[in-house]
């Protein structure tokens, strides 16, 4: 389609923020060009100083034609660093919506675009969801170029590659695939790029628009790629041989592949003493077991296998339930639902109100339920302990999946007691072992690794002895230090 200012104006018809004006080059009315941009997306100061001023002071001779002027502007005639030649009207419109302005030469049916992005964006702040103690305090923001800058500050190597892709037929969202050339496995990079290129949706606005289209099994609630808002964690995983994805407008990075053991690691593991880090890792795995199985185990034992409970404890449980009119399983399910409601309400309300509702609601609901003989104290303790244990998991996406599995295991314990709980555990383990993330087994190294690899997942070695990258990532360079 031919490029002209009139057709461009028609393209943006009924767009109040579309602006255009004619500029006389060198003050000569016979040499005019049309400046076009979207108000709010460009920096007005850069447009005025870098483009309009350069056009006004441009020295022209009688030999200069529109084509000559076009070539001068394309090769340094303005004070803007990034300049692109536009091939079509559709491409020109895309450039304007991508925070650029354009000079349209109607006589030549050509246009040049200049990158003059607006500086209106959220400042870099500390991570909100992933607290940092001994790590970096900078978190990703919605601007993808700021995010790539944060990563490059951590990894100052020309081998850090950033491949740009556009996703969304209407949103035209920038998606960057980030990896370290010479380190990351080529097949993994090719697989990620291929899956991104096959995404065919109108807009990529939320993280789900990306995740559900590229993971191997979108039906499972367990995350198969790791999302993080911490730039240091993102960079550390790139050094291990993973592939990263950054999406414009989403303040987090995605790391591929996501494996079970990776969701229990935090950057502070390398900052603390290796004995401390190993102890904290073991605590996280113990918390997973408590959060996942404790309510179901209580239901199974109290309803079917009371002989497993010590006599003195059994007497205490009987006394606490003496005046409670509902069954054990209804108590547990009721408290678990109340716990989820309090947690969800605390997330949705403004921070000061949410914290108040969470604390007061838990105290009032728990204390009132026990005082009114609606719930027994032991059930409140069991459910609260399981919920608190769930908060120790570093990854919230994985914690959500555990909360769903917790309800399912309670139902299994209700139906079959310890046998039902055992079947539920077996099905859960089978499900996790059957998952793959970009060709890597989800339970690696627990399902297919050696005893040494399993030990490395549970215990951190001194950094001086950790000389090799994870074998399952198939990095092109396994050694990480001499």
Report on the architecture of this protein.
This protein has 482 residues and is of the alpha+beta class. It folds into three domains: 5-115, no CATH class; 144-258, no CATH class; 270-441, no CATH class. It is 46% helix and 13% strand. It contains 15 helices and twelve strands. The strands form three sheets. It has a five-stranded antiparallel sheet, sandwiched between helices. A five-stranded antiparallel sheet has the order 6-7-9-10-8, with helices on both faces. Helix 9 crosses helix 14 and helix 11 (328-348) packs across helix 13 (377-390). The model has no long low-confidence stretch (mean pLDDT 87).
Short summary of the structure?
The protein is an alpha+beta fold and 482 residues long. It is 46% helix and 13% strand. The chain has 3 domains: 5-115, no CATH class; 144-258, no CATH class; 270-441, no CATH class.
What's the SSE blueprint?
Blueprint: H1 5-11, E1 18-24, E2 32-38, H2 44-56, H3 66-74, E3 83-86, H4 89-97, E4 100-105, E5 110-115, H5 144-154, E6 160-167, E7 173-180, H6 186-197, H7 208-214, E8 226-228, H8 231-240, E9 243-247, E10 253-256, H9 274-303, H10 311-320, H11 328-348, H12 351-371, H13 377-390, H14 396-434, E11 436-437, E12 440-441, H15 451-458
Antiparallel strand pairs: 1-2, 2-4, 3-5, 4-5, 6-7, 7-9, 8-10, 9-10, 11-12
Helix pairs in contact: 5-8, 9-13, 9-14, 11-12, 11-13
């Amino acid at each position: 389609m031919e490029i002209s200012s009139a057709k461009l104006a028609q393209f943006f018809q009924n767009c109040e923020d579309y602006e255009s004006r004619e500029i006389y080059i060198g003050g000569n009315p016979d040499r005019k060009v049309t400046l076009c941009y979207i108000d709010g997306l460009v920096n007005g100061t850069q447009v005025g100083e870098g483009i309009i001023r350069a056009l006004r002071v441009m020295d022209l001779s009688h030999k200069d034609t529109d084509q000559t002027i076009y070539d001068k502007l394309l090769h340094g005639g303005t004070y803007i660093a990034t300049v692109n030649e536009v091939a079509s009207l559709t491409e020109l419109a895309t450039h304007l919506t991508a925070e650029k302005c354009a000079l349209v030469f109607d006589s030549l049916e050509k246009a040049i675009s200049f990158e003059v992005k607006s500086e209106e964006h959220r400042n870099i702040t500390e991570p909100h969801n992933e607290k940092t103690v001994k790590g970096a305090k900078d978190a990703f923001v919605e601007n993808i170029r700021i995010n790539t800058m944060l990563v490059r500050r951590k990894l100052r190597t020309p081998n850090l590659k950033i491949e740009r892709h556009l996703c969304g037929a209407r949103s035209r969202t920038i998606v960057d695939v980030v990896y370290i050339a010479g380190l990351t496995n080529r097949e993994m990079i090719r697989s990620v790029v291929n899956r991104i290129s096959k995404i065919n949706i109108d807009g990529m606005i939320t993280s789900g628009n990306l995740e559900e289209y590229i993971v191997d099994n979108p039906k499972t609630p367990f995350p198969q790629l790791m999302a993080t808002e911490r730039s240091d964690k993102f960079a550390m995983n790139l050094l291990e041989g993973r592939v990263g994805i950054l999406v414009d407008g989403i303040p987090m990075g995605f790391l591929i592949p996501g494996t079970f053991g990776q969701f229990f690691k935090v950057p502070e593991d390398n900052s603390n003493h290796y004995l401390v880090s190993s102890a904290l890792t073991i605590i996280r795995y113990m918390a997973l077991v408590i959060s996942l199985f404790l309510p179901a185990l209580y239901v199974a034992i109290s309803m079917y296998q009371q002989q497993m409970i010590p006599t003195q404890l059994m007497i205490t449980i009987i006394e606490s339930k003496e005046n409670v009119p509902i069954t054990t399983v209804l108590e547990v399910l009721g408290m678990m639902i109340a716990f989820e409601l309090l947690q969800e309400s605390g997330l949705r309300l403004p921070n000061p109100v949410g914290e108040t509702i969470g604390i007061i609601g838990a105290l009032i609901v728990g204390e009132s339920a026990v005082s009114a003989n609606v719930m027994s104290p032991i059930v409140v303790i069991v459910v609260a302990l399981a919920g608190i244990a769930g908060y120790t998991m570093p990854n919230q996406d994985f914690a959500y999946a555990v909360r769903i599995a917790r309800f399912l295991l309670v139902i299994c314990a209700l139906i079959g007691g310890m046998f039902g709980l055992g079947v539920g555990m077996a099905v859960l383990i089978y499900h996790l072992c059957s998952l793959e993330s970009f060709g890597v087994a989800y339970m690696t190294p627990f399902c297919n690794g050696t005893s040494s690899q399993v030990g490395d997942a549970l215990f951190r070695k001194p950094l001086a002895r950790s000389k090799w990258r994870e074998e399952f990532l198939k990095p092109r360079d396994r050694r990480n230090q001499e």
